[in-house]
Amino acid sequence: MTWCTRRALVRTAALLPLAAAADCSTGRADRYFPQHGTAAHRTVAYDLRLSYDPDSGRLDGRARIDAVAGPALDRVELDLARLSVHAAEVDGRAARTRQRQGKLFLEAPRRIAAGAPFTLDVRYRGRPGPLRSPFGSIGWDRTGDRYDGTLVASQPLGAPSWFPCNDRPDDKAAYTFRITVPRGHQALANGTLHERSQDGRTEVWTYHHPGPMSSYLAALYTGRFQHEHLPSVTTVGGRPVSLHNAFPPRLAEAARYDLGRQPEMLRHFTELFGPYPFESYGAVVVDADLAEPVENQTLSVFGRNHIDGKRGWETLVAHEMAHQWYGNSVGLSDWRHIWLNEGFATYAEWLWSEHLGEDDADTIARRERLSMGRRDQDLCLAEPGPRHIFDNRVYVRGACTLHALRLAMGDDRFFPMLRAWHETHRGRTSDTEAFITHADRHTAQAVRPLLQSWLYDKALPELPTGSGLRRV
Ligand SMILES: [Zn+2]
């Protein structure tokens, strides 16, 4: 079982249409995955009522979607793959539907006026499964273990494997999940558990997450888990954040230890990045091997292979938590800006090492820079091309870019700049040019030339000498 891979090479067979890689320039270009999502409407809220039967693997779904039209609409476009729609309504009136190549079109019985709110009601069913993509198999999958589990790891294009959505990272919405599973099974989803009720042989788990959240970060896990509720963390300038982990019972002891420093991590990252942006956080461990953990919003997912009882994968625990600020709260206007997610989360790994008294970020950055060779001179960080958004070079060069900026600015300006970046864009999306302008405003000397060379030149710059860094 593999998911979008950070360390592994991207597979050669492209099964989704991809935009061509643009030149390394600041010019506007087509979106990286133009077949996914539409700009013709934006979503306000998803209300997903899902009934899952682990014996048959069948999912019965009903999605009520509140949205707002851009231009006037005669039909509404959504993304949905491998699942069949059997009834749909637009604003309470039955609508004809058509499904083709991962798209779902609903004919509006009455034209939707430009800028008008509207509601969709889509009933669908089938056996969901992972979607093949240039990044491996993504989306919904079964864990195939003794716990009859399922998981969702959609990044970047897997959300249509389990619900109809406007699948683009800049369409963020609120989510409600009402999940029916057999008694004895559990369901976890983003946000807060509002209600759990039993009805004969089934249980209904209701979650709400005000988000806003991009479709690729929506997640559902079912099966049998052991739960751990950690004391809420009250952070400076923030509200109390509840912490909750779930893991297969057989891995409980190791998982409790490996995830045990998350309260300290949350406090530390809040000091560095600003108040935690959501109401809760947690890690779910599934009884399957995952190529990489995934930072699903408020509820990251880890594979059993990331649990060793020795905190051997704690850098990734830090990485996924840091994404809640950078990637989830501050999202991407398009996948081309992925370094703003992965460079930041990788730099958070280095900052966590520094906090623990192990190698500091400067030592790690200089070691990484020294080890970069010719292959590292062949990537434009700000325009990696759609096939390379999860290339390891995006992660490491992205983190080195932030470290170069820290060296140039000094700690007294760098960390307030990082906090202001989150505070300014929280709940929204942004892009590379906005970051360069933001950083440039936070320092007396111009850092635009430094950032331009790290982000837009293929040749690798040297790290500035810098001085005055504290251990943070
Ligand atoms: Zn990441």
From TrEMBL:
SUPFAM superfamilies with a match to the protein in the record: Leukotriene A4 hydrolase N-terminal domain, Metalloproteases ('zincins'), catalytic domain
Pfam families: Peptidase_M1, Peptidase_M1_N
Top-level division of the source organism's lineage: Bacteria
Family (UniProt): Belongs to the peptidase M1 family.
Record domain Peptidase M1 membrane alanine aminopeptidase: where: 258-454
Obligatory cofactor(s): Zn(2+)
The Aminopeptidase N-like N-terminal domain, residue ranges: 45-217
Catalysed conversion reaction: Release of an N-terminal amino acid, Xaa-|-Yaa- from a peptide, amide or arylamide. Xaa is preferably Ala, but may be most amino acids including Pro (slow action). When a terminal hydrophobic residue is followed by a prolyl residue, the two may be released as an intact Xaa-Pro dipeptide
GO MF: alanyl aminopeptidase activity; metallopeptidase activity; zinc ion binding
This protein's record includes keyword GTP-binding: no
Gene Ontology biological process terms in this record: proteolysis
Record's signal peptide: 1-22
Name the UniProt record assigns to this protein: Aminopeptidase N
Record's keyword terms, sorted: Hydrolase, Metal-binding, Metalloprotease, Protease, Signal, Zinc
